[in-house]
Amino acid sequence: MATQEFYIRNETDTDARGPYNLEQVTSLAEAGQITAETLIYDAASEQWVALSANGELMATVFPEKKKLLLKAKEIKTLNKTDENAKAITVDDMLAAAEGRTDDTADKKDPEIAMMRAAKVGMWSCLGALVVSATGGILPHTDALLSGDPAKIFAQPIILLGLLDVFLAVMLGLGMVSLYPFVRFRAALGFGFLGFVFVAQGQPLPIMLVAIGSAGLYLCTVFVSMLPVVIVAAAAVGGMGGLSWYLLSH
Known about the structure:
Helices cover 57% and strands 6% of the residues. By secondary structure, it is an alpha+beta fold.
């Protein structure tokens, strides 16, 4: 379980968060950002289930605490009410949590930054898949519109483009649980297209497909903003350059 990845969401959410490792899930629980009713994606059953349904994970994330009986003791506070103090609003608390106040500028919640980076990675994957599908499908629209299986299978890059369209639509709907399939797509594209271009002796598209595939794969892995921005640029730039090459040749 220590190396397992978890995707989580609340029952009312449409977007999932993750992937998180076990340590990160435990940190979210300690911060009160998830509860026993939070939904996790069960890869075995391919369903969203309450965290409490996974006994082993529940015991790790929410361990039972021994109750200590303490004698009541009167505590005298040194704090004094300041009638001129400004009331704290919900916006103030959110700004403090995100490190947007003078007192908390150096205490930003790392989970918020991770979620933002994961969001950038997801949209970068979607963009890379869209531009990749463009280069795979548009040059062969006649074969695709003919509906002739022989013509379609004669250009297998069409099938890769259709897979890109499917994954892009699913990511657009917030299905980040499909990240393993996106990683498979990145590896498949690098292996298949790399072999084709090596056989044809074309170094430029080999470099573009390598950059784009590596960027696409790593967009589903990194959860820190700077690495995500770098691999996102590689994914979109590599796939975009490859599509331009396919459309112009």
